[in-house]
Specification:
Keywords: Isomerase
Oligomer: single chain
Strand content: 5-15%
Organism: Paenibacillus beijingensis
Order of helices and strands: HHEHEEHEHEHH
Protein name: 6-phospho 3-hexuloisomerase
GO molecular function, one term: isomerase activity
CATH architecture: 3-Layer(aba) Sandwich
CATH superfamily: Glucose-6-phosphate isomerase like protein, domain 1
Pfam families: SIS
Strand order of the largest sheet: 2-1-3-4-5
Number of strands: 5
Shape: globular
């Protein structure tokens, strides 16, 4: 029975977290994606896995979306956008990617707990997501969950909300998107 109490507590934390996301920032990211030729997703660890899921949904809508580091990922250019999901905004490999994208005049968006971080400072726009930092010394914990779980869950829900907003703007539904679903499974 304790497991389901934990599940209910997680859902409650996630609800409170999503309520704190600025609508203007979400709309700005949605608009940036729609004006980009290609969209690149990056993140480390679990945030990277969530970025991969977001890239897949973007592809289902006909948006040229790529995961940084895959063998089929093309180069980024000035009409493209790199979206980095990083709780801390300080992951060295992601900082390097942001700098490279900026060096070719690509847009950079950071989805992070820390807009004042290195990645946030390099970004053209940030979306601040609530979540507990990995290091207790960096801030107070407001979650029962370990490490960055609340941020990662909020990131998934936020990315899915962006997908729904784009679907609405483009007049898409799941049926139309299913035509782009993988069929070699």
């Amino acid at each position: 029975m304790a497991t389901m109490k934990y599940a209910a507590a997680i859902v409650d934390e996630l609800y409170r977290s999503v309520e704190r996301i600025a609508a203007e920032e979400a709309e700005k990211l949605t608009a940036l994606i729609l004006q980009s030729d290609k969209v690149f997703l990056a993140g480390a660890g679990r945030s990277g896995l969530i970025g991969r899921a977001f890239a897949m949904r973007l592809m289902h809508m006909g948006i040229d979306a790529y995961v940084v580091g895959e063998t089929v990922t093309p180069g980024i250019g000035s009409s493209d956008t790199l979206i980095i999901g990083s709780g801390s905004g300080e992951t060295a490999s992601l900082v390097s990617m942001a700098r490279k994208a900026k060096s070719v005049d690509a847009s950079v968006a950071a989805v992070t707990i820390a807009p004042e971080s290195t990645i946030g400072s390099l970004a053209d726009m940030t979306v601040k997501l609530p979540g507990s930092p990995k290091d207790k010394a960096a801030g107070t914990y407001t979650t029962i969950q370990p490490m960055a779980s609340l941020f990662e869950q909020t990131l998934l829900v936020f990315y899915d909300a962006v997908i729904l907003a784009i679907m609405d703007k483009r007049g898409l539904d799941s049926g139309l998107m299913f035509g782009r679903h993988a069929n070699l499974e």
